[in-house]
Amino acid sequence: MPNPPVPVPGGTDPAVLRNFCIIAHIDHGKSTLADRMLQLTGVVDERSARAQYLDRMDIERERGITIKSQAVRMPWTVEQDNDQDTAPGTYVLNMIDTPGHVDFTYEVSRSLEACEAAVLLVDAAQGIEAQTLANLYLALGADLHVIPVLNKIDLPNANPEKYAAELAHIIGCDPAEVLRVSAKTGEGVAALLNEIVRQTPPPVGDADAPARALIFDSVYDTYRGVVTYVRVIDGKLSHRDRIKMMSTGAVHEMLEVGVISPEPVKAGDLGVGEVGYLITGVKDVRQSRVGDTVTSQHNGATTPLGGYAHPNPMVFAGLYPIDGDDYTDLREALDKLQLNDAALSYEPETSGALGFGFRCGFLGLLHMEIVRERLEREFGLDLISTAPNVVYHVTMEDGTEHEVTNPSEYPDGKVAAVREPVVRATILSPADYIGTIMELCQRKRGSLLGMDYLSADRVELRYSLPLAEIVFDFFDQLKSRTKGYASLDYEPTSEQLADLVKVDILLHGDPVDAFSAIVHRDEAYAYGVMLAGKLKELIPRQQFEVPIQAAVGARVIARETVRAMRKDVLAKCYGGDITRKRKLLEKQKEGKKRMKMVGRVEVPQEAFIAALSTSPVGEKAGKR
What we know:
8-stranded antiparallel sheet, 6-stranded mixed sheet, 624 residues
């Protein structure tokens, strides 16, 4: 039967509210399940329905991955059933569809703060993967009730019994309690919605207390300014109220409040437990910080809610506009994008080769690639990104300490010690590939922390690995060695001492900072030979000979030479003694030597783009 329209916010009794999110590994069917729920609850009619309805960005739809969490409000009517302990009637479900890739774990952690329960979705053909476990631990850490669900039971190679037992073993429930659905066909989704109503605890809050609401997301609208998504904990937020942001003390008037269902719907106010949006007309993106607490200006709350720990960037890279005049546009674009993506950090920097740009911090390589693609698509910019690197702490022999986020910051002089970040990596794979995974991890300077069999043919390996090894080609190699079956998740843990050196690339004796890299001493020669060979192909021939050298400190470890263009000076010498030819060649040689002394090598922009974009960065947009 069709559901009634969504009840008007503000008058909703918290007892009929259910706030939950869907968490899973990438490509296990979260967005498809969300589509089916929107269809069953009647908030999206057949005419406007489309696949991945909540994925609003073109990049999400093209790649088939969720990047931004999306909140939506749905009504659901529970029929009278003697077996259920849930009162019949219409309930209001606030659902948040979350990303599954490890680089967007921060989006997931923010979504969990706005919910009381999490639907843990597992593919019935692939079973538990690394990010499944990571998201489960996040949900348990946030004290949420976990509802285990197996998806894709309609697939011919699905094995629901085996994976239900695996899931029950990890969560600590009975295999019969694991729900089975097919988001594609709709089988079992109605029963899942009934279970969500039954198992999710209603929100708890004081309706008479001063208003307190947690900002869990913000987006920037060109016409309306900052749109802030909130979860109300205590009191209520009403249209035309004056509100205060507790971290900045900024006061604004609310021009509009409402809910997303799944398009924005205006409302009079938002009460306890409700999830909705606020528009204050603010254009400054820093005024609406994720994790901040919103309260009333008059008689407001004095104690803010627990926000979120700010994410630490794991990977750094420089972003430079190809056209130097676009620098201001790039700064504004990064400002606006940072509101949509609170995990992005940036600061201005200058490169002798690339001009003015920004050193940006990302949570991983997919995050870096998505940010660059969004800047180019949404803001019409042409960008060069330098090779990614991580943060190192360098101690000199005189005791001074340096934090290095960019190879050009690496100090000259005698280095006493270099510390690099280490991550705890979890790899889930079929047991057949244990040997090849161990060999790869040892080659990447990893040490085994432990190994567990989740079932007879599925194993979990835990390794301590340097982050610098993961951000290059580790993920690509892991996938190719395991025929795509292995999955990877990692979290930063500590730092360790490492034998690292800075490799400089010199063109005609001058270092080019954009090509510098910090690598392990054992890998320095291979990196130098690879980049020198690549630049030899990319740099056009000059009127004089151009040496390309890779050097560690003052020691050259690799060299290539771009040969000079030479005019045929012997064309007019049609006879006579060999000394006549030699004289002409010597004269040309002297001219080339003088030219070499005053000549400068102009590296074309295309060479920077080709050399940096094809640097060995792994884990392109791979699905995890």
